[in-house]
């Protein structure tokens, strides 16, 4: 009996040791010792909100167990610490303020605010970081509503592209800290020029439709705004290492000093990314860095940012011909060893934010973007006359053509300044007066660096040179009126543009352009909140877009392209609760004079765009999220119609190729109403994320894209098949006393090995009465893997 009593006593004592519990309480303060009400305090998986006195209390905390204590409150740095309690304990926790309020002023002027009547998605830093393994922005945000994406090399590293609602990147306004990223002449954005920009991004907002007024080229269907890292008052450092299929790897180092002498903050990032590519020789070498220094006090921040990217990428622009896809999906037309794109772009930003009072804030951003580089090409059997050269005499023979290597250069400078004034006289009324002034100078020239038969031609002979200048003035005035449940939004924008260009083009034609534009873009909308969970909104917005450089150059001399106009109507409903949310958005985008490809060519054989008098996009977007126990589900679906009215197609007739004056030089086909190219009627995404353990999460990411037509003829023969692609991600997260955290992730992309193409080009022609096509498709990688290690200090 005594033995039984001893055993019983032993287990009681063991239970007291193993399962003893203590009480942990405390108070949360700010830096001025003011108690913070409403702060979220988490301890060992349990969460409490501080009361009106900043007080919190946890009962039944396990004794002598190391647990994570965290405290979060808006506009303050998160407090995190691993702690162990051997008895009841009282804590006093002091939070350090972020520099968020003044830092976010930089992008508030061009973003959709809360309760605005527009369709938008904001992707925050933790989600960007979770998705970023070195791929470009289009692949990181690919699950956002209405987005399609593509990669020339098939891996998401190197040259990538994206569409939103079927709108291509030249019609999507992109800014970084409110500074335009779109090239002013071509309107394009090349993500390869800003490698690993995601690693320096604090948030990305995607506005679908016209959205709010912004800086740079007109938002003609969507806009995307990137905010770089918000200054941190605490020191930090981080190492990201990734490696995977196709010898794809990325190494990134980030650091921040925290606040020095209570005023100065320095931060930086260095990145190196490489991929051999899924496509043969589709490799990319990308290097980049970003450095910033700031002076901060309670009313002012002054920040200087310099970022630079260098890309050397083997060209995979030609794609894979359709009849080759079945036998060789990784085919690359180019074989010359140095068929590369080599370009460097450096961004300088100088940002000043000053808070005159709680009601009046000023933001000024000056910027300069320097870009210079070339793409190199091997060309065989090129006629001397195409380069302004005379035939070469070899002994007694006259040679009229030669193999050669050439480089096409772009040397550009883009600089300007943005100024924004925020005036909030009360909680019910907010004003933003913004404006920007910028100038662009783009030098285009070409040089021959080698010829098989050079004759007297000098090395680096320059056969063309032209320069474009673009000046732009933009101003907008935004008003938000908050009347309890009703929010009224008005936005008036005025843009003044002057574009001139002169010189000799690469086909030796003379360029002489001078085109001024004045655009007025009003926007009006309302948002009505029935209660905290339910709201509806409606808006109408006008946008104009000037033709880009090639639209002018390739147009017939007697037909100058007209600017485009868009009237965008949006109607939506939002529901949000603690465990679920749902957004429904209806849109109708009414285009006038949209510039489209019809197959028509100019007098030197270059494809030209033509103003289509009427075209439209209309659709419904649904976004849904749900929390079920340890599972989070995020999904979206877009159903749309995208049409051109009274479309006329032009198809070359090669039987009369040498006789452009002949009426049969091109056939015309009156096709009536057709689908707009690269505008699928169905786009859907789903992310199912499960927290399997305290340390591990698993996510299944799915994407479906319906049929896309390669031209505007609605021909299935010239289209991309629908595809359904799934990615599987496994992430583990550990926190230690020595290191802030260690994350290890495995990504299995295209887990079911779908064979699909995301983009293509096509050229149709008739020959001896039969229709033929030349084309290039861009297949994406089959099943592939990526491993990621992230260490935060």
Helix and strand arrangement:
Elements: H1 2-19, E1 21-29, E2 40-43, E3 46-49, E4 55-62, E5 67-72, E6 79-83, E7 89-94, H2 100-108, E8 119-124, H3 125-131, H4 137-140, E9 147-151, E10 160-164, E11 172-176, E12 179-180, E13 201-208, E14 222-228, E15 236-244, E16 248-256, E17 264-275, E18 284-296, E19 300-314, E20 340-355, E21 360-383, E22 392-394, E23 397-399, E24 401-426, E25 429-451, E26 461-483, E27 486-504, E28 510-529, E29 534-545, H5 549-554, E30 564-576, E31 580-601, E32 607-628, E33 631-653, E34 666-675, E35 682-691, E36 696-705, E37 708-709, E38 719-720, E39 723-734, E40 741-749, E41 757-767, E42 770-779, E43 784-792
Parallel strand pairs: 1-7, 11-14, 33-41
Antiparallel strand pairs: 1-4, 2-3, 2-5, 5-6, 8-13, 9-10, 11-12, 13-14, 15-16, 15-43, 16-17, 17-18, 18-19, 19-20, 20-21, 21-24, 22-23, 24-25, 25-26, 26-27, 27-28, 28-29, 29-30, 30-31, 31-32, 32-33, 33-34, 33-35, 35-36, 36-39, 37-38, 39-40, 40-43, 41-42
